[in-house]
UniProtKB/TrEMBL annotation:
Active-site residue list: 275 (charge relay system), 367 (charge relay system), 402 (charge relay system)
Taxonomic source organism: Alosa alosa
GO terms under biological process: acyl-CoA metabolic process; fatty acid metabolic process
Residue stretches making up the Acyl-CoA thioester hydrolase/bile acid-CoA amino acid N-acetyltransferase domain: 55-184
Protein name: Uncharacterized protein
Gene3D superfamilies: Acyl-CoA thioester hydrolase/BAAT N-terminal domain, alpha/beta hydrolase
Length: 466
């Protein structure tokens, strides 16, 4: 992969600083550990790598503490909306006065246990924040800045009022060095293209988000950082007063714009969709004669929607079924029952038996926004009857919710959401529990990348894979 050298360097750096205690090079260990002759040396906080892609693990070591000293590791991020998010874990140093996060237990905080990335995936709005927040990166040309600090004792609140023993500022990037970002407006298609560095041509991914609308770029930027030309496609307006009357032709045109780009291997294009984006992905894979993807990835979605209709007509169909929506005791809206029971009428769901390319489905078993578990069961049965079940791979995660994003993204169980069909603002329940949802995001992203690499990069000459 074109980003391989960058990743290898970062991983080697991380391993040097955080391999197990007895495996640390003696020079590194001696430079980190606290001199036994002095009790006045300040604690030393090491975070490696300081700059990395958002899907890379960082490694945290605290040295120069007193033996068996209680400390709190704290992370703080100010979002682009000027909201503050924090996470923290409680640790006890060893006999040498050291905490190594990759192997030591957090005794409490926003996460517990041995969790190397808990300071990211358990981020939550600080007390007193606005309700219904969701952390999303809008400007991929700038990093997500996270302050990591260590505090005396086991602290649960009031971090801004306490002096830290040590602090390190880290950067988390969606965009690797050398990746180009290009605005797209060709043939009426609106989106953003991300192109990896190097001569190309490269395999490509058409990336579509869900019913929230707007142009969402960060996953496409991360895909390009792993060697795929990727297009973040806008197909629903974020702030207009109605859903646009977009039909299949718009998505086919977007596919052709991506496929015919000079940096793209035209026969190696995949389609990836989340939520309502999966409905489009299923439709293209099953029916389109123009867009014939090499493989498809569908995250937290369903094949249930009126076949060969515009988006406006699809939203009208959903709106008629909104009587099945529920509101829980916290005033959170639950949509998962809207498409249940899964219809048997052929014109109300995509005939997935027609799909001829490898298909990866990713779902959370606690998805409260959409009936993804029931939909996937129906998809498996339909493909089994059609004889193409061998093309399907399903990743199903217990206690994971709807918003399965790139790894170490904070779990959002509910958030504000504006419905496309009537522009109402509601608190949508997405579902999931924090730790298992974090596992689902990490595991599925690794397998999504492997799936895309396998089906888009196979049989390419070695030079094209670098």
């Amino acid at each position: 992969m074109i980003f391989r050298n960058y990743c290898i360097l970062a991983k080697k750096t991380a391993r040097v600083f955080v391999s197990r205690r007895h495996q640390l090079p003696i020079q590194i260990w001696q430079s980190l550990r606290r001199p036994s002759s002095s009790m006045s040396v300040c604690p030393v906080l090491s975070v490696r790598p300081i700059r990395a892609l958002v899907d890379e693990k960082f490694q945290i070591v605290v040295t120069n503490l007193h033996p068996k000293q209680e400390v709190t590791l704290h992370s703080l991020h100010q979002s682009e909306d000027n909201d503050y998010w924090e996470a923290f874990g409680h640790y006890i140093s060893d006999a040498d006065g050291t905490v190594i996060v990759m192997e030591d237990n957090s005794k409490g905080g926003t996460y517990v246990g041995v969790e190397p990335m808990g300071l990211l995936w358990s981020l939550r709005p600080v007390p007193g924040s606005r309700d219904g927040l969701r952390l999303r990166k809008r400007d991929v040309l700038s990093p997500m800045v996270v302050n990591i600090s260590v505090h005396k004792g086991h602290t649960n609140q009031g971090f801004s009022e306490k002096d830290a023993l040590a602090t390190v500022v880290t950067e988390r990037w969606y965009l690797a060095p050398g990746v180009q970002r290009v605005d797209i407006g060709d043939r009426g298609v609106k989106g953003t293209l991300f192109i990896p560095p190097g001569p190309g041509p490269f395999p490509a991914v058409l990336d579509m988000w869900g019913g929230g609308g707007g142009l969402v770029e960060y996953r496409a930027a991360l895909l390009a950082s792993h060697g795929f030309v990727s297009m973040a496609l806008e197909y629903l307006p974020a702030f207009e007063q109605r859903a646009v009357d977009v039909d299949t032709e718009y998505f086919e045109t977007a596919y052709k714009v991506l496929q015919t780009h000079p940096q793209v291997s035209g026969d190696r294009v995949a389609v990836l969709g989340l939520s309502f984006g999966t409905s489009v992905t299923f439709t293209m894979a099953a029916y389109s004669k123009v867009a014939q993807p090499r493989c498809c990835v569908c995250i937290s979605g369903s094949h249930v929607h009126p076949v060969n209709k515009s988006l406006f007509e699809a939203f009208q169909y959903i709106m008629k079924k909104m009587t099945k929506a529920r509101i829980d005791e916290n005033n959170h809206v639950i949509w998962r029952d809207v498409i249940l029971p899964i219809p048997t009428e052929p014109d109300l769901k995509v005939d997935v038996g027609r799909i001829k390319c490898p298909l990866l489905i990713v779902i959370g078993q606690d998805d409260q926004s959409w009936a993804t578990v029931e939909s996937t069961e129906d998809i498996e049965q339909m493909m089994e009857r059609a004889g193409n079940r061998h093309l399907l791979t399903v990743l199903s995660y217990p206690d994971a919710g709807h918003l399965i994003e790139p790894p170490y993204t904070p779990h959002i169980r509910f958030s504000n959401f504006v419905t496309q069909f009537n522009r109402m603002k509601v608190l949508m329940l997405w579902g999931g529990q924090t730790k298992p949802h974090a596992h689902a995001q990490e595991d599925s992203w690794e397998k999504i990348l492997h799936f895309l690499q396998k089906h888009l990069y196979q049989d390419l000459p070695p030079a094209a894979k670098l």
